[in-house]
Design goal:
The complex is a heterodimer of chains A (188) and B (154). Chain A is built from seven helices and six strands, in the order H-E-E-E-H-E-H-H-E-H-H-E-H. Chain A is an alpha/beta fold. Chain A has a four-stranded mixed β-sheet, with helices on both faces. In chain A, a hairpin with a 6-residue loop joins strand 1 and strand 2. Chain A is globular and about 60 Å long. The model of chain A has no long low-confidence stretch (mean pLDDT 95). In chain B, helix 2 (28-45) crosses helix 3 and helix 7 packs across helix 8. Chain B has a single domain (7-153), classed as Butyryl-CoA Dehydrogenase, subunit A, domain 3. By secondary structure, chain B is mostly helical. Chain B is globular and about 50 Å long. Chain B is 74% helix and 0% strand. Chain B has helices spanning 7-26, 28-45, 55-73, 81-88, 94-104, 108-118, 124-131, 135-153. Classes of the chains: A alpha/beta (188), B mainly alpha (154).
C-alpha cells in the first residue's frame, strides 16, 4: 500500500469516527504469549482475542454480533495497548480501561463482573464465582463465563481455578494460565 | 439480512481499485475527496445492505455516483490537464497515461462508462446501475466514448 493511500485511509478512519460511523475499531498488540487482537466500541473494550484465536473468525463474529462497521484503527486503542504492555512488564496490577459488556448477558454477565473484581495476585474457584453471581449450583455455567470470556486478561478469568487448587482449563492454553498466575505471584 | 464481512475487508480488497477508478473519472486531485466521500457513504449504508454478493461492484457504483456528483458540481468543466501532465512523468506506462488523459476529457457519462468498463472491468448491467440508466444507454455511452477516443488517438 502506497504512502498516499495510507494517508487517505488515516483520514477516512478519523472522519468515520467523527461522524459516528466507526462502531468497532481494532488493533493488534504484542504480548509474551503472541499477538493479541483488541477491539473496542465507542463505549470501551468489547473483545480481546488471545493468540490461540483466529483473527478472521473473531472479526467476522464481531461484524455479526456488534456491527459490520469495523475498521483497523490502532490509534483508537493506544490506551488499551499501553496498559497491557505495562501489565506484562509487571508495572500494572489493575486496568483502568472502559469496558463494553455488550457480548455478555444474564448470569454470564454477572459472573464476569465477579471475575473483573478478583484482585491481582489472588484466585477464586469456579464455585466461588457461581455463588457470587447468585447461583451456587451453576458451577458449570461459571466455567462457561470463563471459557467463553470475550475479554480475557482484562477480565482476568485466569484467576479462576479449580477447587482442588489445580489451574483448570484456559482458552489460551493451560500453560498460558500457569504462566500468568506465576507472573502475578501465584504458584498456579 | 446478509452476513456482512467486517468493513475493513472491503478496504483491504478494494480501496486501491476505487482510488484508481476515481482518478480516471475525476482526476488525481479531486480523487482524494471523492475517495473519502465514497467510503463514508459506503460505511453509512453498510449495515443495512441486503446483498453481500458483489461488494466490489457496490463500492465502484458508489464511487461513480460520487464522481458524477463531482462533475455535476463543476458543470462540464474538463479535468485540468496540466496537473495530470505533470504527474505523467512518474507514470510507469506513459502510453496508458495518454489514453486516460483523453478519457478524462470525455463528457461525464462517456467518461464514466469507459472507466467503469475498462478500469473496473464491470459488465454493462453494472455500468448501467452505476450510471442510473438502462444497459442500452450505458452501451451507447461506452460506444460513443470509445468512438471519440479512437478519433482522438488516431
Amino acid at each position: 500500500m502506497t504512502a498516499t493511500m495510507d494517508k487517505s485511509l488515516e483520514e477516512l478512519r478519523e472522519r468515520a469516527a467523527a461522524e459516528g460511523l466507526l462502531d468497532v475499531a481494532y488493533a493488534t498488540a504484542d504480548s509474551p504469549f503472541g499477538t493479541l487482537l483488541l477491539a473496542r466500541t465507542p463505549k470501551g473494550l468489547v473483545r480481546l482475542a488471545l493468540p490461540s484465536e483466529d483473527v478472521g473468525e473473531t472479526l467476522a463474529e464481531l461484524a455479526e454480533r456488534v456491527s459490520p462497521r469495523i475498521l483497523e484503527a490502532p490509534g483508537r486503542l493506544d490506551e488499551e495497548r499501553r496498559e497491557l504492555e505495562d501489565y506484562f512488564e509487571g508495572r500494572r496490577r489493575e486496568f483502568a480501561l472502559p469496558i463494553d459488556w455488550q457480548l455478555s448477558h444474564g448470569f454470564l454477565l454477572r459472573a464476569r463482573h465477579g471475575i473483573a473484581a478478583i484482585p491481582y495476585g489472588e484466585t477464586r474457584t469456579y464455585a466461588d464465582l457461581a455463588r457470587a453471581a447468585g447461583n451456587e449450583r451453576a458451577v458449570r455455567a461459571a466455567g462457561t463465563a470463563c471459557s467463553r470470556n470475550p475479554i480475557p486478561l482484562i477480565v482476568p478469568c485466569h484467576r479462576v481455578v479449580r477447587s482442588d487448587g489445580t489451574p483448570g482449563l484456559y482458552a489460551g492454553g493451560v500453560e498460558m494460565k500457569k504462566r500468568l498466575l506465576a507472573m502475578e505471584g501465584q504458584s498456579g | 439480512m446478509a452476513t456482512l464481512p467486517p468493513f475493513q475487508t472491503l478496504i483491504d480488497e478494494h480501496a486501491a481499485e476505487v482510488m484508481a477508478v476515481l482518478r480516471g473519472a475525476v482526476g488525481r486531485e479531486a480523487a482524494e475527496d471523492a475517495f473519502q466521500e465514497t467510503f463514508l457513504a459506503a460505511l453509512r449504508a453498510y449495515p443495512s445492505l441486503r446483498e453481500a454478493g458483489n461488494l466490489r461492484g457496490w463500492l465502484v457504483t458508489i464511487a461513480h455516483r460520487k464522481a458524477i456528483d463531482h462533475h455535476r458540481a463543476r458543470g462540464r468543466a474538463p479535468v485540468p490537464v496540466e496537473s495530470v501532465r505533470e504527474e505523467a512523468v512518474f507514470d510507469p506506462e506513459p502510453t496508458d497515461g495518454e489514453v486516460w488523459r483523453s478519457v478524462a476529457a470525455l463528457p461525464p457519462k462517456q467518461r464514466a462508462a469507459v472507466t467503469l468498463r475498462f478500469a473496473s472491468d464491470l459488465p454493462h448491467e453494472e455500468i448501467a446501475a452505476a450510471l442510473g440508466c438502462s444497459p442500452e444507454a450505458a452501451r451507447r455511452s461506452l460506444h460513443e466514448g470509445l468512438k471519440r477516443l479512437r478519433k482522438e488517438m488516431a
